[in-house]
Amino acid sequence: MSPGHRFRACDALLTNLHEPCSSELVLVAAFTGRDLLMRAYRDELVPHGYHFDYFGDSMLVS
Predict the structure, then answer these.
(1) Tell me, what's the pLDDT at 47?
(2) Where are the domains positioned within the chain?
(3) pTM (2 decimals)?
(4) What number of other Cβ atoms are within 10 A of residue 50's Cβ?
């Protein structure tokens, strides 16, 4: 899977917040679309101090 892949069996995704350039982030971008995901990170997650990977913050993408 890669960004732009059209999922047919998933309505929502609960995922951890992943480090930039990680393979996990690419997988989430395949579900959300890269632009939407990067906008969420830039506008919401980073400015509000969410923690990536090890501290347990997560997001629901639907």
Answers:
(1) 93
(2) 13-61
(3) 0.71
(4) 14
